[in-house]
Amino acid sequence: MKTKDMLDTSPESEDRVETVETVDIGTRPARYFNRELSWLAFNERVLAEASNPHYPLLERLRFLSISGSNIDEFLTVRVAGLAGQIRRQIEELSIDGLTPTQALAVTHEKVQELEQIQQQSWTELKVQLAEAGIRVYGGEKMDREREKWLQRYFLEDIMPVITPQAIDPAHPFPFVANQGIGVMFSLTRIADQAPVMEMVLIPAPLPRYVRIPGEEAAWISIEDLICRNAEELFPGFRVNGHGVFRILRDSDIEIEEDAEDLVRYYRTAIQRRRRGRIIVLQLQGKFNPAAEELLRAQLGLDRALIMKTEGIIGFSGLSAICDEDRPELKFEPYSPRYPERILEHDGDIFAAIREKDIVIQHPYESFEVVIDFLRQAARDPDVVAIKQTLYRAGKQSAIVNALIGAAEHGKSVTAVVELKARFDEEQNLLWASQLERAGVQVIYGFVDWKTHAKVSMVVRREADGLKTYCHFGTGNYHPMTARIYTDLSYFTAEPAAGRDVGRLFNFITGYVEPKRTELLAISPMSLRSTLYDRIDAEIAHAREGKPAAIWAKLNSLTDPELIDKLYEASQAGVDIDLVIRGICCLRPGIAGLSSNIVVKSIIGRFLEHGRIWAFANGAHLPNQRAKLYITSADGMSRNLDRRVEILVPVRNKTVHDQVLDQVMLANLLDTEQSWLLAPDGTYQRMGEVEVPFNLHGYFMTNPSLSGRGASLASGRKVPKLSLRRGNLT
């Protein structure tokens, strides 16, 4: 089955499918896309949603804000990494053959291109917001009432918090934090006509945008508010001009293998990160040349990107305006369903799992069931032990509270808290401390590997002995992101799963590497080889003339060895359909290399996060013979070689059909939110089709997976998955 054959029925589709770019497949640069540029292409797709006329206005603004947050993180981590390689004179080539210097240059160019698109999007949205009754002010005049309110607000709520500082030999240049915003004022002291340069750093606790009371919604950025009140701030001075700046710092934390105390190391590393090297200096407005020169000299810029704009800086801050109480300008509210199977057992989750394995899909089905799994375990007198991995749990974590409650009820509770979860290190240190105080056995895993597997196990004393109940997730134990990330939760009491999870935790907590596993594949030991074995099996089926296909849904695909394995399968005649939301270094549609591979990306209301692998296994229809897996791992070298991850085979017939014939199929069928990856690395929205299909809309309006397995089959609204190219049954 090929996604293009299924979905693109426009007149031009046949020519487009057959048109491929022929390249020299023997050279590495021709075989792969650049990782950084592929990530920026993903963010360009996110940014494109800000101009999507089918979305409500404030949701479009939210996409613009998300694109800003994404680029900030990209710059402070990936671009910072390239700059670090250059400083250390590391000349390791990227996957597409670029040196760090070359990669940094093309990345800087693309970032600036995206920034221009952001500014254009903001200009359009600002006009449309005003037409809808939401005004965002800059330096324009306001009516008298608003001006008076703003002046009073500035004097009472802003003035006491900010600290203007002269920039001269008697006043040391202040430290500017990561994502810090400041205003440089060029002044003349009226008394003696002396020129003075002043800086005002905007403290982080101040709101990024201030809402002005009134019948019509009105907002102003904090920097514009300060600039409008410069005369109040600098009495006795003439204001000649001002310029707003923002900086981004290197925010990555490098692990030292000889760290004797991981907790202490991270506490100090977090402090060091706040003073990381400056990666980007953003300048807004007509910056005084002397002020700009002073900034460049004082900030110690080294290979930093200097970005100048007449528009706004810090697009992520626009998220505040998205919270405006205008329901008609937002997506219709959606409330996740609670799994029917569990309600049928009067809320007894263990009874429901004992009867049959359960799979639920977030956010269409409530993450509350995962929390209830642990809450019930904490209260159940027959539960003797709970073991849990925590990668990202959020700032208000019901999961952590449930584990604390279980420990206080006398259960044996073990929590593997991953300190190396980027940007959540500080929060995880806090959770670890609270868990330890409650009597939970806290483990930090490996020094050089992240524990990224999402696993929870509950050991319960029952009539026939101890029974283990397991939860496997494709996403984090994070109640907030579970509302907007699509992920799978799989509950099972299969004895083999329980035994393997026990081995997994022994490996993490005691470095006891399992000699074998019955069900799970675990990275960095066996996950890669298991995937290769399944791909090899499909290659063998293709060479024997049997049906052969691979379907996968991942966040990213960057590992060159895995990509090469998929190329090998394509060359053998295996049909491969990949749904890769973000980075994809695999180049599809190349004659002699990847002509049997189609890659699509889905960008929409929810962030696609679930990870699925499916292999036809020689069957004409991908029925129960198909090999199906869910996993915590993406197709990246770090996931396969430097993280603890799991690959879980789905063998229960009901769950197998639900995940393959519903979730995977719906992803392949989506047309309204899908982008196809071309051989040259560009993405194009899918064209108009005879029967459009919206993945997110479908699952929001149809029965839950955990009901009776009839979500997509009901009413034959969606055809079944088929291997026959262009002919779904």
Helix content: 25-40%
* CATH domain fold name of the largest domain: polyphosphate kinase like
The geometry reads as globular
Structural class by sheet pairing and helices: alpha/beta
User: Total domains, how many?
Assistant: 3
Overall pLDDT metric: 86
Low-confidence stretches: 1-28, 255-260, 707-729
Oligomer: single chain
The main sheet comes to: 10 strands, mixed
DSSP strand (E) fraction? 15-25%
The strand count comes to 27
| Helix count, DSSP H or I runs of 4 or more residues | 23
CATH H-level name of the largest domain... which superfamily? Polyphosphate kinase middle domain
* Beginning-to-end CA distance, first to last residue: 12 Å
| Alpha carbon gyration radius | 27 Å
The appropriate CATH architecture of the largest domain is 2-Layer Sandwich
Characteristic key phrases:
polyphosphate kinase like, Endonuclease, Chain A, 36% helix, 729 residues, eight-stranded mixed beta sheet, alpha/beta, ten-stranded mixed beta sheet
